[in-house]
Amino acid sequence: MENSLRAISSQISKFILGLIFVCLMVTSCKEGLDTEVNEPEWLGSSIYDYLNKSGNYTNYLRLVDDLNYSDVLKLTGSKTVFVADDEAFNRFYHKLGITGYDQLSMAQKKLILNYGMVNDAYLMETFSNYYAGGLYEGLAIRRASAISPFDSVAHESGSQLPASSFWDNYRTKGIYLLRDNTNSPLVYFTKKNMELNAITNADFRLFTGLDRDDNDVYLFKNKITSRDIICKNGYINVLSDVLLPPANMAQLIKENPSTQTFSSLLDRFCAPYFDAANTLLYKQLHPEFSDSVFTKKYFSNNGAALSEFTSISSPYITTKYPNNTAISSQLLLPFDPGWNSYRSTKSNGLTPIESDMAAMFVPNDEALREYFDNGAGSVLKERYGSWDNIPNDILAILLRRHMRNSFVESVPSRFNKMIDSENSALPVQGGDIVDNYVGVNGVVYVTNKVYPPDDYASVYGPVLFSEKTKIFNWAIIQNDFRLYLNSLISKYSFFVPTDAYFKKYIDPVAFGKDVPAALKFWYNTKTSMVNATIYKYDKTTNEIVGDSIGVLAPTLTSDNTYKFIVNRLLDLLDSHIVVGGVETGKGYYLTKGNNFLKVSGSGNEMTIKGGGDITLGTVSTVSNTYNQTNGKTYFIDKPIQAPLKSVYQILSETQEFSDFFALLNGFPATSNSVIFVRKANYWGIDFNVKFFNTFNYTVYVPTNSAIRNAINNGLITPWVSKGTIIGINDMTDATLKAAAILKLERFLRYHFQDNSVFISGQSINNTYQTAAMKLDDINSNFNTYKNKFYRLGVTGDGTDLSLTTEFTASDYSTNAPKVITSAGLYNLMARDYVFNADPKAMNEITVVGGSYTTSTISTSSTAVIHQISNVLRFQ
CA 508, CA 857: separation in Å to the nearest integer? Predict the structure, then answer.
């Protein structure tokens, strides 16, 4: 409170000093004054009397008289007025094509008088100050005028109305329309507000086309030729031209002959809203009026409610259609370009109207034609044929790219720093600007270029444009993958199953149940959501069994069915995106979700197999390839099937791995050394490897004979006694038993390596970290430090893999372990899923709902398994 009082006191002091300064420096409107009112000798006459005495403001004073405003400007009050002399009015009449004042309509008279009047008296020095919880000096660029929205109620019909169906009911009979129902502010440029907002004279020249001296003051493009004329009821500022309120940005674009295409695209996102509050007010002002008043509103995240300046509430806001149903967020603009009193959003609400306005970069008709016919937009033309055929959700992305929330941050000197709402650079150059308009709510830069959104150029583009990929497009939006796929600094290979082939997704959660399930995803055009039909699934035949069990059909994002479907589609997305190219001949490529894909061929001749496809004998083939700025998009004929078998399952069911599996699986369930787990936070299809952590790994499995040799040579101790060898389970000395368990655990963990390595036709020579930690300071082959993980060296010519361990004894190195390829037990892909709950404890899929439909895939780890000729040793 104390600070506020100080600020107000400071302002009063400045005001008084300003009055004294002005009276000394400018022509006073002093006249004979009545000494009985004790007015200072230097205080001039009223605003009205000064203009009347001057003799060259007869047109302006006729406005004042006709609109019954003479008493206001004669009596002591507090006004700041912006007036034009008779010479300026004559130029104005000539421009309108009329002969004089008598041909002005009443609406025109109201606009001229009211728009040039501000309630309260301001010197131009303080005009740029505003209060918003405190004093902000010199930062204001806009201020509310005395104009009323009712000064310009138009009756429009036919081609005057936008072409969209929202306006069809009014084309013949017409509609009484407020182009906006909020105040039209004044926009002004002073030395102070330009300096403090870092707006240069060069900036001013580009967005107005005018040159200015440092001390000039402009209202829009209208220069103040004489300012701060002090009178006893306010200030007079003389303008070079008659001031009419410029249009808002939407209307400026509509009225410009060179931006008709952009205007027609913009008008697809507006509708007439019945304005009950303003209809009532208008009838009170005009008792003869018996119709209804509507307001033109654009669908946006930031716009005025219909009742912003009235006491009567209205349910309609710009995130709802006129029938009060919600508008999809994909169809919302960042702000309403027709909102006269535009205010940008911030974390704690809206910014003050004085502090800023918006800006738009509007490609002219020729730029849009060139972009669509011959430029990067030709993909749009190929897909849709014309601008009119482009769906609104796709078009909205383009429009949003050209709309800026802050004019101050969009002046020419900041063009090189501009980024859009998704942190992508907006590459506008000064030479791109071919025309400009300063509107009541922002600046319109007319450009000779189009600035397409990253969505159009990225690997996401083909999905966005295609009618055949609605399922994946919906999945991308619901899982917030747009920004990821739109990153133009990355390169992707994006595999997209088309909707027609989305017939079978084997659900990993249900795969672990007694009755497995497969899902058929499909796009519901009525709800604009993806649905899933549930079927029983036969593991042995890889076929759907019988009729559908039920349908998961979400209607709200809070539905469990919605969350279920989004979760499964997220898992699919993660396994269909590869960072980098897949036509390099490497054979195996890692996806975003840590799954590996086996890729053969290139372009439309490409085939892709996930780990599950290899097991099931299925394959995905490419039907269309799209070369995009940040990679390639491949349309494929079925979802890629990730592995459905865990490391545990592959090892347990493969006879050649039985001895190694027996060692891994022998740890007591209560032991800290246990390898396989099945418990809360580790629920999977069956058992998961305890130390896997959302990464990709390699598991080296020695042959059964190699394991037996290691046991016979005393390298490891088995769980079960064999002949003279006492097994761990039979040990009676607890200390020796614990030591044997720890030794066995570390031996086994040395066979698990970070990073998946395949035999893929590509040579390799690298070192990798294992899951076994070094506990001593004894020198090892790779000089691994104590408390660091032991390493493995892996080399190969593309047809084999040889391993170098930390152990270097000559008798071991002569029988160095290598991957065995002759039996085909290599490049086996496994995946350890982690679910939110135990699949075995969930209700069966025959029950639609309940615990199954609240299940989620939380994360997963993947591994490639190779059979090797010898055990791996670190000591």
Answer: 8
